[in-house]
Specification:
One of its GO terms (molecular function) is carbohydrate binding. With 359 residues, the chain is α/β, with parallel strands linked by helices. It has 13 helices and 14 strands. The longest helix is centred in the middle third of the chain and has 19 residues, at 141-159.
Length: 359
């Protein structure tokens, strides 16, 4: 499958001056083009995609271009299904593709087909490899891994357990280039400072598979020898926690995460999970929507940096992640309106929220 919210709007002139793309589009007021924009998300097990990415992207497109048409597809973690979805959108006349790839390599032929049809592509969240395209919008993924590694190291140092056992690393899907960046960042902090007992590249970012991997690691290393878990996202952190509870842990070791899922925030409040990476999904979704509308109108806003994907230097917008522990939930996730306290502090969580000053 990763951070307050600062919107970086495309300059007004870029969305107001609209030069034609040469493709057939309905015209909005003032002669602006109203392109058809296709959004492709990879899966729904990670709650952010349907709860945040899709509605935020669609709302921003509609705010900038009320007459724009949006084609939406979720691939359910199936690369072949996503390939078919992209081909279908091209056939339906999509003017711009915003694509969060299930498999960064497998989708290259569809990106090439789009290029042949002069349809610009935005790699959303995950870098697409092997081909050139218009933009890449994501977070500084190496920095994410560094933050996770540092948070885990700090927690173990505080407990005095750093040299008393080994950690488990649950990396993301090998088909997702972001996973390699997270892993690179984490290793840059942890290598030489902790012992890595077991490390896994978890297919599909699956919480169930992460639970199985954690169970295997506990069996191999011994329950008392596991002193930390570097989990690349919150879903897998949940799987690791389930495995540890099943193994009889009375006190869980520190466990990292990413995405600030509501369940993970609740686990942080109750002490089951140590931290998460808060991604400013609003910023990412809205920036991508702005670029999509601009591209559909034949405009090409300047990007602040470029990222090499193995074949080309892709103009890129890399956003900053935020590491969130219990003491930072109020000042980040709640303050920014990502969740309300009422959304988080339900049932048995309410007392722990009050104790943590979350309101």
């Amino acid at each position: 499958m990763r951070r307050g919210w600062l919107v970086i709007p495309v300059a007004v002139a870029l969305v107001a001056a609209g030069c034609g793309s040469g493709k057939k589009n309905d015209s909005a007021k003032g002669g602006e083009k109203s392109p058809t924009i296709a959004l492709f998300l990879p899966e729904s097990k990670t709650t952010r995609y349907e709860a945040f990415d899709r509605p935020l992207f669609e709302a921003k497109v509609k705010a900038l271009c009320p007459a724009c048409k949006i084609l939406y597809n979720n691939a359910d973690q199936d690369a072949a299904k996503q390939q078919s979805q992209v081909e279908s959108a091209i056939t339906q006349g999509a003017d711009v593709l915003a694509l969060d790839a299930v498999d960064a390599k497998a989708v290259a032929p569809q990106v090439n087909h789009a290029r042949q049809r002069n349809i610009p592509v935005i790699a959303y969240d995950r870098l697409i490899t092997g081909i050139d395209y218009a933009y890449y919008v994501s977070f500084n993924n190496v920095r994410v891994g560094q933050m996770q590694g540092q948070a885990l190291l700090d927690a173990m140092n505080a407990r005095g357990t750093t040299a008393k056992g080994k950690i488990i690393m649950l990396n993301g899907a090998p088909t997702d280039p972001s996973s390699g960046d997270y892993k690179k960042g984490a290793h840059s902090v942890l290598d030489g400072k902790v012992q890595i007992g077991r490390e896994f590249d978890t297919p599909d970012w699956s919480p169930d598979k992460a639970q199985q991997e954690t169970e295997q690691a506990i069996t191999a290393l011994g329950r008392d020898n596991v002193v930390g878990v570097l989990s690349a996202n919150d879903g897998m952190a949940g799987g690791a926690i389930a495995a540890m509870k099943r193994a009889g842990y009375k006190t869980l070791p520190p466990i990292t995460g990413q995405d600030a899922e509501v369940g993970a925030v609740q686990r942080i409040i109750t002490g089951e999970q140590y931290m998460t990476i808060y991604l400013n999904i609003r910023q990412q979704a809205e920036k991508s929507a702005e670029l999509a509308v601009a591209l559909g109108r034949g405009q090409h806003p300047a990007a602040p940096t470029k990222v090499n994907n193995g074949s080309a230097d892709i103009p890129a917008f890399l956003l900053d992640p935020t590491a969130v522990t219990k003491d930072k939930i109020q000042s980040t996730i709640i303050k920014d309106g990502f969740y309300t306290a009422a959304k988080i502090c339900t049932g048995k969580i309410a007392a722990a929220c009050a104790s943590a000053g979350i309101k």
